[in-house]
Design brief:
By secondary structure, this protein is an alpha+beta fold. It has 27 helices and 21 strands. Helix 7 packs across helix 8.
Length: about 725
Amino acid sequence: MIPLLLVALSGGAFVATVAARHPQPTLLDRLTSPVQPPKAQASPNEAPDGKTQASPTDAPGPIRAYLARLDERYQSLVQTHLDPWLAGKLRDQQMLELTKGVQRQLNPPEKRNNRGLGLGVGGLTLIGLARLTGWPLIPAVIAIGVYNSWPGIKESVHIAVVERRFSIMQLLLLYFLYMWFGGFYLIGTVGLLLGGVCQKFEFLTQTVTRHNLTHLLGEQPSTVWVVKEEVEIEIPFEQLHLGDVLLLTAGQPVPVDGVVVQGTATVDQHRLTGESQPVEKLAGDSVLAATLVLGGNIRVRVEKTGAETAAAHIGDVLNRTVERQQIRLADQFKSVEKYRWPMLAGGALGWLVRGPATGAAMLGCNFMLSQIPLRLLTLLNGLGTGAERGILIKDGRALDRLTTIDTVVFDKTGTLTLERQRLVRVHCCSNHAEAEVLAFAAAAEQRQSHPIAHAILAAAAERQLTLPPLDEAHVELGFGLKAQIQDQQVRVGSERFLAMEHLVPPTDLLAAQAAAHTEGHALVFVAVGDAVAGAIELEAVLRPEAKDTVAWLRHQGLALYILSGDQDEPTAKLATELGMDGYFANTLPEQKAEQVKFLQAEGRKVCFIGDGINDAIALRQADVSLSLRGATTVATDAAQVVLMDDDLTQLRLLWELAEGFQHSLATNALRAQQLSLLAAFGVLTLPFGFWVVSVLGGVQIITGIIMAKQPLLIAEAEAEPVD
């Protein structure tokens, strides 16, 4: 029985290859497609355009309707009984969660696979009856085999007649036809049956993996509580509109994007942003769909619902990533076409050595075809692993290319440095003290929320200054603000703002401003009354994780550069501090792509890490592009990979993930090559050549699926429990 169970994809690899040449429907669309209402399933022969295709089940109206109902019941039976048994206990629970107790609508390849399984069982039954009774049932068995092989037959004919070329598909067709018409119909039936079982396992694995991947999207509640005219009302979620005020309490998921208008709460948003710690939400703070309220009560004004939410944008991004990779699977078929001549030579050798049966069996000894569907399983594993850790992979090619990168280029502002500022020094005029200048500036800025205000207030708090009371403040957008403090007018802002107020800074402050500008620092002037009292010098804060991350990348043997629009001196200073190999300063946004192209012209493979919006051209020019942006910008971010946690330490995880991805692919490819050679040797030296191919082919597919689902990160692999 064990050899039969291992005859796992001599036919399944063939069917999987055909499926790979013709991309299936959108993967995540399949996952989130509407559940199938009772007795509303389309006919099994219905094409995507609504027209009916010719098939062996075509019949006049009443008979065809009866067959459609019979097929519907059969599909339901398979979903109810066979799928949970194949998926196992854990996956069965996840499938129940996915479908919410209602059968998921199957796509055409899944339905055909189910029918093939039923016909395979029927074929084995007919073979048994034929041997017990002597009835002439073998032609029916052969007909079942040809029907199950029909997609491959059509594809082979299409390549030969329409594309007019010799393909590996035609060799595989000869392999299967010889089994059916050469008296090996038992092996063929068992191979196609158990190959279909393995393909079904692949379908189930992809479905559960996609479900885990898109769990970032959360689930929409059936009803929500809203506040209208201070009255709490429960309404269906579908009736929620923009501007409604939503009431959320502890334990409830946030179903929309919005702004807190009242209350406080602790929110877990790690699924969306990758933040490991819950965050406090107060009035004025934004909340995102697919996050969870852990404690407190808040009222949220709805700003985005459904497909407009950040969570839905992430789902769209993941959807497009898998779609593109699915399309590229068809291109990967071309990479295995190079094996057609060795296959043909092997078949000829087998024919000469041991006859036509051995020659036909040699045609099935190429297991490299299995790498096409296994690659998609590995990619889904990588996308899910990254998403769980706040790494959103928008383009699957990044996992392919990252291990070839030899040069990493960082944008400076917002990437190596934070948007937050910190105080460097306080410049004072002769009749004012540092503490006085800082206290007046902090008092004026205490109701503001921009980075400069935060830096001034933090410096005042660190020095434990007592701030004078603020009577009134007026902001001049983009220039500064005016405040009334202790019957004095205080102005805080730029030199241009002072000029608008008819105030002129003294020459020593202008000199300090020039020096600060050279170092990449900002100078904020403070005027009290009708005279300038001093100025506050601020600098950007280096990310706390930047040094360790850069050191780790350097340890990997990568060349490191800074690309910045800042002056030469501050850029050089930062490059020296971090131990960079070089830098480019005074670079305009449109010139950044030229610098990346310059490095590529030297033969380098460049990874650019920058602002997903402002550095779009440079990001597209780079071989691999990364950005550190929040979840709300995913839809417009030009980078291939987005570090959702806004943390450079995720670079190490990303590199390890890419290495794990490539290791998994390489291991599966090496095993396929080894088993292919072993199968060829077995066919040439052992009897029952078709059994040798089927057993080793099954071993390759089963071990390949197991390998594709293994943890891709080293830490996870070491912590994986052994069953």
